[in-house]
């Protein structure tokens, strides 16, 4: 690093770690979500820790699907076969399955927001400490933006 370079050195710092549970109707699986996730990973915006695909049949039976077969319901995520850090366990699968509707497939994903690591490092170097955090659902943000008066 040169003396004029102000980019913070990111060492032993990670971005925020999130999880999402994305539910899909079994008859609408296109693989597009898997491709979009792969793009985020390849561009370095996120680092994937865990990905599990869970199926819940019409009777409420639950299976964790292997993501190795591109023609299976989990096939859109085949690129991520073996993405297991150990952060997710049986209790997480049970909790995810309880949230799912019958006749759906869901992707349970744990990832790091690597894009935020330089900001986290800079905040820590300045004595900053996270004291609150929340996620606002995108649907709420979009609804609020739609209700804005363009003339104000």
From TrEMBL:
InterPro entries attached to this UniProt entry: DUF6325
Superkingdom classification of source: Bacteria
Name of this chain's protein: DUF1269 domain-containing protein
Source organism of the structure: Terrabacter lapilli
């Amino acid at each position: 690093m040169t003396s004029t370079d102000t980019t913070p050195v990111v060492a032993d710092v990670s971005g925020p770690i999130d999880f999402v549970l994305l539910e899909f109707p079994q008859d609408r699986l296109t693989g597009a979500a898997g491709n979009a996730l792969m793009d985020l990973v390849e561009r370095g915006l996120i680092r994937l820790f865990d990905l599990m695909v869970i199926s819940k049949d019409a009777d409420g039976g639950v299976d964790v699907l292997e993501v190795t077969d591109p023609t299976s319901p989990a096939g859109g995520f085949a690129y991520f076969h073996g993405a297991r850090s150990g952060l997710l366990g049986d209790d997480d699968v049970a909790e995810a399955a309880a949230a799912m509707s019958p006749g759906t497939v869901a992707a349970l994903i744990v990832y790091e927001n690597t894009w935020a690591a330089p900001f986290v490092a800079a905040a820590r170097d300045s004595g900053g400490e996270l004291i609150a955090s929340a996620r606002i659902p995108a649907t709420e943000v979009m609804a609020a933006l739609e209700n804005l008066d363009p003339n104000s």
